[in-house]
Amino acid sequence: MYGRPRQELYGTSDPRPVDRFAEEGKGDLVALVQIQQAAEEVVIVCTFGNSGLTPPHLGDLLASGSGYEDFRDPSYFIEKVGERIICLERCFNVREGFDRKDDTLPQRMFTEPLLNAGEATGQVIRRMDTLLNEYYNFLGYDQNGVPTPKRLKQLGLKEITEDLKPTQK
User: Fold this and answer.
1) How far is it, in rounded angstroms, from Cα 160 to Cα 169?
2) How does pLDDT run across 111-125, given as a tens digit for each residue?
3) Adjacent-strand bridge partners of 147
4) Most C-beta atoms within 10 A of its C-beta, which of 44, 67, 98, 135?
5) What tens digit of pLDDT does each residue of 78-100 get?
6) Cα separations (Å) of 18 from 23, 30, 44, 166?
7) pTM of the prediction?
8) Of 19-23, 96-100, 101-105, which range is least confident?
9) How far apart are CA 84 and CA 98, in angstroms?
């Protein structure tokens, strides 16, 4: 559920309203949802539905259980914890050879228009590269989807930089 578009599914305007049919201007929202989802999963609660537990609630639960008071700060909990998880997962995948070419969807989503989908009937994805560029830019990754040394340092993950260097074969 990392990539579910909460703004589109639930019609929320947090952090801003979004046109569900737009094919650009949403890369940051996908990243934000992934970051929030990663942080929420740290507390091990079901997030399939909307539990009503907000980041401050989740941070309080985690702080109470761990004794680490920084979790009570929603910006720390979401931005630092959630984003570090997403970045570490990405670094693992990069180390294992994944890159931009792997950040895609099934081919049929680009070629087979939706049928019987109400307002979405006839839709296909046309601008995946634009969305990927926005997503990578928001997260501080290069255009191949690799977290930059600068971003790793900002997230306190500087030591991971060595793992991302290409190995000689």
Assistant:
1) 20
2) 999 999 998 899 999
3) 141
4) 135
5) 878 899 999 999 999 999 999 99
6) 11, 12, 29, 38
7) 0.85
8) 19-23
9) 18
HEC per residue, the chain: CCCCCHHHHHCCCCCCCCCCCCCCCCHHHHHHHHHHHHHHHHCCCCCCCCCCCCHHHHHHHHHHHHCCHHHHCHHHHHHHHHHHHHHHHHHHHHHCCCCHHHCCCCCHHHHCCCCCCHHHCCCCCCCHHHHHHHHHHHHCECCCCCECHHHHHHCCCHHHHHHHCCCCC
CA dist 33 and 122 (Å) reads: 26
Structure tokens given for 29 = 């929202």
Half-sphere exposure of 97 (CA within 13 A, CB side): 0
Mean pLDDT, range 69-83, rounded to an integer:
87
Length of the chain: 169
Q: CA-to-CA distance for 156 and 158, rounded, in angstroms?
A: 6
- First CA to last CA distance, the chain: 36
